[in-house]
Amino acid sequence: QKKLEQMMEEEGLKDEEKRIRRSAHAQKETEFLRLKRTRLGLEDFESLKVIGRGAFGEVRLVQKKDTGHVYAMKILRKADMLEKEQVGHIRAERDILVEADSLWVVKMFYSFQDKLNLYLIMEFLPGGDMMTLLMKKDTLTEEETQFYIAETVLAIDSIHQLGFIHRDIKPDNLLLDSKGHVKLSDFGLCTGLKKAHRTEFYRNLNHSLPSDFTFQNMNSKRKAETWKRNRRQLAFSTVGTPDYIAPEVFMQTGYNKLCDWWSLGVIMYEMLIGYPPFCSETPQETYKKVMNWKETLTFPPEVPISDKAKDLILRFCCEWEHRIGASGVEEIKSNPFFEGVDWEHIRERPAAISIEIKSIDDTSNFDEFPESDILKPTVATSNHPETDYKNKDWVFINYTYKRFEGLTARGAIPSYMKAGK
Ligand code: ATP
Ligand code: MG
C-alpha cells in the first residue's frame, strides 16, 4: 500500500486515477488472500495421460477441474526419494522453479503433497523433450543444431545469472514449448548430484582406457542404433546416464558453472553425429571415457560436420580452465558457429522445427506410456509399508507452494492455447 501511494505520488496521478489503482490493488490483495486459504490437492486435478517417466515417479498431463486449464503434473514417490537420498534435490527443484521466473525455465504453479507423493504442477510444454526428438531423427542439420544450441545457451545463462549451476543438462531436460522453443526443466540436481554419480559409484574403476571393444568397433550407424535403442531405459534408471556430465564434476577437486557448457558440447555432438561422444554399453564404461576425454573424444570420419561445429564442440568439451564461456557468455555468443543468430529475438522468431498442436491437450509429441498405479494408494501402500515414510514426513515440510500469478493471470490466454490456431 505504501509503495503504491508513493509510486502514484511520483507519477503525479489525478485523484480519480488514484482511486482506480487503489481498488485494483485491493482486488489483487483479496485474490491473494483467497489463494493463500485454498489448499490444493490431487482431487482438484483430473489426470488425462502419462507423458513422461523418471527415476522417482512420472509426469502426467492433468486438467484443473474448476478452470479447465491444462498442466503437467510431476509426481514423486516419497518413499523412493527417502530411500535414494533425493530429498535435498527435490527441495532444490521446487525452490529453483519458484525463483526462476524466466522464459527459459518451465514455470511452476503449485506444489502440494499427500501421504505418498509430492506433486509439482507446472506449465505443460506440448512440444515434448529433446531426447524424444533426437530419437526420432537420425541427426539434426547444422542449422537446426545452431538454433537449439543457441537457445540453450541463453537458457543456461539465465540460470547462471540467478546463481545456479544446473550440472545435469541433458536432452531429456530440454523441453519444447508449443512453438518449438527451448525451456529447461528438471532442477532436481542443481545443488546435489544423483547419488549414483558421486564418486563412490565409480570408485572401484581405475582410469584405465575403456574396454568395450565390440561397441568401440561399431561403425557410427550401428552405434547410433544401439544408443537409441538403450536410451529411454537409461533415462528411467535411478543411475541415469553419465554421458553429459563434465569430468571435473566427477572429481572431488571442485567445479563451477562452466560444467554446464561441457554438457552442451556433448549435446551438440549428439545432434550432429547421432550419438554422444562417450556412449558405451555401461555407465561405468562411459565414465571411463569421460575421464579419458583427451583420447576418447573423436569424430567419426564417415559423418562429416563443418569445421566451425567441430571447433565449437572442442571449445565446450575441454579442461574447464580453457573452456569457452570462462570470460562470460559473450564469448560463446560471438563464436563463428553462431554467425547469423539473432540473439535478441531468437525466442520470438520461428523455431528451427515447428510444432504441430491440434488442441491444448495434444500429446502427439510424447511417447506412449502405460497407465501406472502411482495414484492408487492401496497398491502403493502395500509396496511401501507406512512406517517407511510416516516418521520422516517432516523432511518434506514447506514443500507446498502457490504461484500468485496463476490467479492474477486468469484472464490471459496461456501460450499453449494460442498455438496451432
Ligand atoms: P530426473 O531426470 O531427475 O530423474 P525425471 O526424469 O523423473 O527427473 P523430468 O525429467 O522432469 O523427471 O520429466 C520426465 C519427462 O517428462 C521429461 O523428459 C519430459 O518428456 C516430460 N515432462 C517433464 N516436465 C514436463 C512439462 N512441464 N511439460 C511436458 N512434459 C514434461
Ligand atoms: Mg529427467
TrEMBL record:
The keyword ATP-binding is assigned to this record: yes
Keyword Magnesium listed: yes
Recorded GO MF terms: ATP binding; metal ion binding; protein serine/threonine kinase activity
Cellular component GO terms, alphabetical: cytoplasm
UniProt-annotated location(s) = Cytoplasm
Return the EC number: 2.7.11.1
Which leading EC class covers this enzyme? transferase
Which InterPro entries is this protein grouped with? Answer: AGC-kinase_C (IPR000961), Kinase-like_dom_sf (IPR011009), Pkinase_C (IPR017892), Prot_kinase_dom (IPR000719), Protein_kinase_ATP_BS (IPR017441), Rho-assoc_Ser/Thr_Kinase (IPR050839), Ser/Thr_kinase_AS (IPR008271)
Domain of life the protein comes from: Eukaryota
**Catalysed reaction equations from the record:** L-seryl-[protein] + ATP = O-phospho-L-seryl-[protein] + ADP + H(+); L-threonyl-[protein] + ATP = O-phospho-L-threonyl-[protein] + ADP + H(+)
- What UniProt keywords are attached to this protein's entry? Acetylation, ATP-binding, Cytoplasm, Kinase, Magnesium, Metal-binding, Nucleotide-binding, Phosphoprotein, Serine/threonine-protein kinase, Transferase
Where is the stretch described as Disordered?
Answer: 1-20
The name on file for this protein is: non-specific serine/threonine protein kinase
Q: Which residues form the Protein kinase domain?
A: 45-338
Any Pfam family hit: Pkinase_C
Which residue intervals define the domain AGC-kinase C-terminal in the entry? 339-411
